[in-house]
Amino acid sequence: MRRFRTIRxxxxxxxxxxxxxxxxxLDRVSSPNDPxxxxxxxxPMRFDRALGVGADGGHGFxxxxxxxxxxxxxxxxxxxxxxxxxxxxxxxxxxxxxxRIRHTLELERRxxxxxxWILAVRWMHDTVVEELFDNVERAATxxxxxxxxxxxxxxxxxxxxxxxxxxxxxxxDARLARAAFERTDYSDAWxxxxxxxxxxxxxxxxxxxxGAPFRVVGREGGEVLLGQDAxxxxxxxxxxxxxxxxxxxxxxxxxxxxxxxxxxxVRRVHPFMARTMLRRIHRRLALTAPPAAERARQPV
Length: 300
Known about the structure:
Largest sheet: 7 strands, antiparallel
Radius of gyration: 23 Å
Helix content: 25-40%
Oligomer: single chain
Shape: elongated
Strand content: 25-35%
Low-confidence stretches: none
């Protein structure tokens, strides 16, 4: 019988707060008002139901289900195939007003798992757990003694692995963009999912077109319409935000042969530029969002 060696990774932090207070925070992990998980900087932890045994979900591409849960004290998550192993949070009292929170990961080394762990996953995992512990301190005591600092390698991995914008059908709710021209010669739409803590006000996303000579030509509900008119073509860019996603749509109207010639060249690079600009502002807004512990204190 083949035996697999195990990757084991342990983080722990002493918190100057009662175990009951920290345990109550742990019970809210993955909830709509989660005060601990470091989203939107990292993919949120989500399950198909409230935290409890049998809840199925994960964060990002890592999938797992809750296999053990003791409210206020312990939560263990079993990885689902192709991964094998578990990760777990435990809160231990160290006195009346002090406790320790520990996170343990045990993962079977299969195939390329070891090298993926060594080169990339371990660095991001360590940062996520330490940022979560920062939020534990922030929520339980109001301050963080020694906030985690990102290494240059983590910064590079974070940038490279950030989610990409996906092509979508032109959104029906982009009413301003749909009504912009009587005749449209080109249209497209690129979309990204919103994470907890990211702004739902489309005004916050206007800098997606930073550096381009666009002006605001309309606002309605969750949509802002930007435009630029020229003698050879007119362009409208719509930023549409709802509770789950942000969509950048473009409509173009050509006027003459110069416009057709110009757009024949530009349309080859336009999709790349549109999705790159949307991804860039998406990541920037995630990195500048308030920490989860601060957001959880704000009125819902």
